[in-house]
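hey so u asked for the seq, here:
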Amino acid sequence: MHRIRWILLVMLASALTGACATRPVAQPASDAREALNHGYAQLHWIAGKMRHVDQLLWVKQESDAVEAAVKTVSRTMGEHADALETFERERDDLRLDDDGLPRYEQRKRLSVIKQRGMTTGTPFLGQTGAAFERTLLLSLNAVINQQRHLMRVMRHDETAPALRDWLKASEQALDADYEHLAGLLNSEYFCSD
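ran it, structure tokens below
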């Protein structure tokens, strides 16, 4: 009986140390506020990148509907970035300087933003007409979808009423932008009803 326990103990120790050596586990934020701050920093980073997305329209010809939609998204994201910066200045417990993401996740996100052309205008520069508009709208909708879902999950953990109310209102604004873009995509580029 003693020998069986010894074998089980060795097997358990081997399994545990092997798992730790080959698969590092992300450490959770030390407290709820730190985790929320990571979320706010992520929201701010995207909003800051997207606040000037309407500048893509300077070098492209697009339909009035797409131009209006892009300007709305740019305005919404600018308002979100400004609001977060104001919250950071006014609150001692909110910081936007640490998104809590591993280096490669940060680099991946920047790569996605760049690939979608949200910072430089590429790959949109070679596209025109419906192809340009469709790609732009799909890219914007993907980013908005990520932001609104992050706001939704953060809102459930936020205890500060002002921040919770802002998350809810901002999520609703992005829900409206998302639905508008999805409707535009469906009516102009995908559905042929």
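DSSP finds six helices and no strands in the chain. Residues 8-25, 119-124 have pLDDT under 50 and may be disordered.
lmk if thats what u needed
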